[in-house]
């Protein structure tokens, strides 16, 4: 073997960090890496998950871009593993594959009425406001009262995007259709519900604080949620993050509630029971059971049932990975079963030769972008030392995979294509003083990337 040919599927942060770490690692052989993504543009959830009004985090794209711009990783966008390229193809052309396909869909919330019209998954809404090519352009923002279920940062992103005045998003990269949709939204009340108490939330302080800084939005908190039990008091006293969160919430409790056009209500100790529908099968109310602390940091039901009238509900109860053709999948956790990134057969725990995982598809949809770096380090260590389990490809030349994609008529996009799209989006933003305006339709993204359409 002259060169280790490695395919990485998924050009989100995990895939790009894995490629970077593999190239920089001390090793006794050359490597040649091809990075595939089903989307025409790289960066995964940094481009299509992180909220547009978080420019600092979106800025991580610059660091990822620097890695790609070195030019030693080949990028193949618009190539869907399982459809455009299969596991057998990869075995023919590579010695190993690293899956970095993340977790892109909503976890389920199994309560009656969750499929009613007006009930949405946070991931779909996030995809819409972040201009993902595969979701509809229009989002039905007709509700005045909305419930958001969940007490993590995605719930905060969704609530903030729903409540924030659209004008305050104009400086961001949101697509025009998103701006127009949000601007026309009649929403007045966004209710966020968490099963547990303020000392058990999964928000991070920075993201929570942002809610209180929104223009023309009152924060509404309820005294009954702040009768802390001993476990909560201990959590606040012993954990700095919980302490800061409590401080932020206590400050809001003291703030006079004015006459803002919109209100953001934080409800704690609320266990979802049912989404109640009207006669037309549309969301009409959210029914929940009031819980109380169980003295161990958990909660128990009180039997008290409450109902809040709403016309739309968003479940932000976590993301979930999707199975990949021919690759073992742990249905319970939504991940590729693995030991430190080495894929394992489900049940037997035997190693699956040549197959590795990193990022959210390896460890589940928790953790920040930075965590995908340490993840990748661990996985790459095993790739480098895994010679015994590498495949023996028949056609490892770099040209062979290009010939394959061409023969199948796959309109793949490459690094130069990303530069074309990037420049196009920046140019779209310039006349309006915006950093960029995202191109949303997939066909348009591909045509601009492949220089098949005039670049305005
Ligand atoms: C709404 C939201 C907001 C977030 N905000 C922040 C934040 O502010 N700060 C922070 O640090 N972290 C944030 N995160 C977390 C961060 O996005 C993740 O930690 C990180 O993106 C996980 O990286 P990944 O590469 O594993 O997955 P992803 O970023 O999801 O990348 C996976 C890639 O694989 C591709 N793919 C999937 N299936 C296939 C297939 N079959 N064939 C080819 N390609 C495929 C996808 O198109 C995607 O590009 C946020 C997450 C969400 C959901």
In short:
This protein has 456 residues and is of the alpha/beta class. The chain has helices at residues 13-24, 44-48, 55-58, 60-69, 87-93, 122-129, 153-163, 176-183, 205-211, 230-238, 240-254, 360-363, 371-384, 398-407, 415-429, 442-449; strands at residues 3-9, 30-36, 73-76, 96-99, 105-106, 119-121, 145-149, 189-193, 217-221, 262-267, 270-277, 283-293, 299-309, 312-315, 319-320, 338-339, 342-344, 351-357.
Plain-language structure description:
It comes from Mycetocola miduiensis. Belongs to the ferredoxin--NADP reductase type 1 family. 32% of the residues lie in helices and 21% in strands. The chain has 456 residues and is of the alpha/beta class. It folds into 2 domains: 3-104 and 321-412, NAD(P)-binding Rossmann-like Domain (Rossmann fold); 108-319, FAD/NAD(P)-binding domain, CATH 3.50.50.60. The strands form 4 sheets. Strands 3-2-1-4-18-17-16 form a 7-stranded mixed β-sheet, with helices on both faces. The two termini are 46 Å apart. The model has no long low-confidence stretch (mean pLDDT 95). Flavin-adenine dinucleotide (FAD) binds next to helix 1, helix 2 and helix 7.
């Amino acid at each position: 073997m002259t060169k280790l040919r490695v395919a990485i599927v998924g050009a989100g942060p995990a895939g790009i960090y894995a490629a970077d770490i593999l190239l920089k690692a001390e090793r006794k052989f050359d490597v040649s890496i091809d990075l595939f993504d089903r989307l025409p543009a790289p960066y995964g959830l940094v481009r299509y998950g992180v909220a547009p009004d978080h420019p600092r985090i979106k800025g991580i794209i610059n660091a990822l871009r620097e890695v790609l711009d070195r030019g030693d990783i080949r990028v193949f966008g618009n190539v869907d593993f399982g459809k455009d390229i299969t596991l057998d193809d990869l075995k023919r052309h590579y010695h190993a594959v690293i899956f970095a396909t993340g977790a892109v869909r909503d976890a389920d919330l199994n309560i009656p009425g969750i499929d009613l019209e007006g009930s949405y998954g946070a991931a779909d809404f996030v995809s819409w406001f972040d201009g993902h090519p595969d979701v509809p352009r229009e989002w039905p923002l007709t509700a005045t009262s909305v419930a958001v279920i969940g007490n993590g940062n995605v719930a905060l992103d969704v609530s903030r995007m729903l409540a924030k005045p659209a004008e305050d998003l104009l400086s961001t990269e949101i697509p025009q259709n998103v701006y127009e949709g949000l601007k026309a939204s009649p929403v007045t009340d966004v209710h966020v519900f968490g099963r547990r108490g303020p000392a058990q939330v999964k928000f991070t302080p920075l993201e929570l604080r942002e809610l209180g800084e929104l223009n023309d939005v009152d924060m509404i908190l309820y005294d009954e949620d702040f009768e802390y039990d001993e476990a909560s008091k201990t959590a606040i006293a012993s954990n700095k993050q919980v302490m800061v969160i409590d401080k932020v919430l206590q400050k809001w409790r003291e703030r006079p509630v004015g006459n803002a056009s919109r209100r953001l209500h934080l409800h704690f100790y609320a266990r979802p029971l049912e989404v109640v529908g009207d006669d037309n099968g549309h969301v009409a109310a959210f029914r929940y059971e009031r819980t109380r602390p169980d003295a161990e940091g958990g909660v128990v039901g009180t039997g008290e049932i409450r109902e809040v009238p709403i016309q739309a509900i968003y479940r932000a109860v976590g993301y979930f990975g999707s199975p990949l053709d021919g690759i073992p999948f742990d249905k319970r956790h939504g991940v590729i079963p693995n030991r430190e990134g080495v894929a394992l057969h489900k049940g037997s725990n035997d190693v699956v030769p040549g197959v590795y995982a990193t990022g959210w598809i390896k460890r589940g949809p928790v953790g920040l972008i930075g965590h995908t770096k340490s993840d990748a380090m661990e996985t790459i260590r095993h790739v480098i030392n895994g010679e015994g389990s590498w495949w023996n490809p028949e056609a490892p030349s770099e040209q062979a995979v290009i010939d394959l994609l061409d023969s199948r008529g796959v309109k793949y996009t490459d690094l130069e294509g990303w530069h074309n799209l990037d420049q196009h989006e920046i140019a779209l933003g310039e006349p309006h003083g915006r950093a960029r305006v995202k191109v949303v339709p997939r066909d348009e993204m591909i045509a601009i990337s492949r220089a098949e359409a005039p670049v305005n």
